[in-house]
Design goal:
It is built from eight helices and 13 strands. With about 290 residues, it is an alpha/beta fold. Helix 5 runs antiparallel to helix 6 and helix 6 crosses helix 8. The radius of gyration is 19 Å and the shape is globular.
């Protein structure tokens, strides 16, 4: 995915009273967000490096002087956590325990090497980054009252990664879904390889929360129907893989030239990227069918 933060400006979009999405001005770079209560501010993700983290802080300060008491890291990828170190020392960072465990055995250099393809090999993106670990881990759900505004953070299971968490406002029915659900005109990417697990995670999400608005970690804001669409897509490729295996079609032949069913209405600017995701998913589904 093209994630280079060069030239990225985060647009502040008010979604509800005290609820703000920070939307990237490029097609698939990271989004973020913040929520303002009567007592404090909570930020969702810190972006790629200190410069982008500071841009988030500046966006908050353009709205309120209340303390940034909480920062939520939705997964263990550098583009979601590498801005942590510029937040105030007294900001409490929250993440799923698996995110903390992964970061604890990682280094900035190691994560940067893993992500070099997403920034066209430009490792200067990571200059000055200090790996600041989250302070508090949770198992399935964490919640806080910011003063008249409840925020929840859920982990429903493995999806794009083992760690992706969902931030949810139960009263406003707004969710930040990190990499679990991308934005409008997308399909999932089972980077961790488990198609059936991904589907089970989304089903658990659908049975637990009911977002009307989804701010994805990447891509444009989308409605709550995205959850159903993602489940439908995963069902489709699991069945296609099963049929391919029954007909002795090789995994290579099954995925090499595959295209996405037009019913999933892929955003044109993301078609090449989503086709790559699709072929990756097909290979994963085929392995599961063996």
């Amino acid at each position: 995915p093209p994630l280079h933060p060069r030239g990225v400006q985060l647009e502040t979009r008010q979604l509800s009273n005290g609820v703000y999405a920070l939307m990237s001005n490029t097609p698939f770079a990271d989004n973020a967000g913040f929520i303002v209560g009567e007592d404090a501010v909570l930020v969702i993700d810190s972006h790629f490096n200190g410069k982008m983290g500071q841009q988030i802080i500046d966006a908050v300060r353009a709205v309120t002087d209340l303390p940034i008491r909480y920062l939520l890291n939705t997964n263990a990828f550098g583009d979601h956590v590498f801005g942590n170190h510029v937040f105030p020392d007294d900001t409490l960072i929250i993440a799923h325990q698996s995110t903390i465990d992964s970061l604890r055995i990682s280094t900035v250099e190691g994560i940067a090497q893993t992500m070099r393809g997403t920034v066209n090999g430009d490792l200067a993106v990571f200059n000055g980054v200090e790996l600041r670990l989250p302070d508090v881990g949770f198992d399935t759900v964490w919640a806080v009252d910011l003063g008249g505004r409840i925020v929840e953070m859920h982990w429903f299971g493995a999806g794009m990664s083992p760690h992706d968490s969902v931030v949810y406002l139960p009263n406003e029915k707004i969710a930040w879904t990190a990499n679990l659900i991308f934005g409008a005109g997308t399909i999932p990417w089972a980077r961790s390889g488990g198609i059936a697990d991904y589907r089970a995670t989304l089903s658990k999400m659908a049975n637990t929360i009911s977002p009307n608005t989804i701010v994805a970690g990447h891509g444009e804001i989308v409605g709550g129907e995205a959850v159903k669409n993602y489940v439908s897509y995963l069902d489709d490729i699991l069945e296609q893989a099963r049929q391919a295996a029954l007909n002795d079609i090789t995994g290579e032949a099954f995925s090499a030239d595959a295209s996405i069913d037009p019913k999933y209405a892929i955003e044109p600017t993301l078609e090449q990227l989503m086709t790559g995701f699709h072929r990756w998913n097909l290979q994963a589904a085929y392995r599961e069918s063996q």
